[in-house]
Amino acid sequence: MQTQLLGAVAMTVCLLTCFGCGQTEAQPVLPSEAKPPQTLTLDQKAWEHVPQIQPEDDAILARFLKAQPEWVGSPSMSGTPVLYRCQSDRRFYWLEGNGSSAVWTCLTWEKGKFNITDGTGVPFPQED
Q1: Of all helices (H) and strands (E), which one includes residue 14?
Q2: Which of 51, 95, 109, 120 is the most exposed place for a label (fewest CB within 10 A)?
Q3: Helix, coil or strand: residue 113
Q4: Mean pLDDT across the chain, nearest whole number?
Q5: Do 40 and 91 touch, CB atoms closer than 8 A?
Q6: CA pair distance 22, 120, nearest whole angstrom
Q7: Rounded to two decimals, what is the model's pTM?
Q8: CA–CA separation, 86 and 61 (whole Å)
Q9: What residue segments make up the domains of the chain, in order of their start?
């Protein structure tokens, strides 16, 4: 009896492993609120979206990672960030989504200091 039960469990596991449960794995989708706007207005500063990271932006990221090595290889900072500039200041956003909500990490370089924030929901707040 016990052998038959174990055999049935093993067969079920095998079938589920080979053929799945009839569901396909959905790819993460960013909700519309996570789409980067052309400009952000924060603390009365206008931040402009920059479509491509330049060497000076890479240098800022390298400076952060040198000062904070625990962030090297962090999944929160994987992929190419969305970049905003306001004069010499920068905002780097790394975005992910689970289909219903954005998950984000923002590294800010402002007035010579780094600040990191993260959250879920709207990553690009706007002042009124």
Answers
A1: helix 2-19
A2: 51
A3: strand
A4: 77
A5: yes
A6: 30
A7: 0.72
A8: 16
A9: 27-120
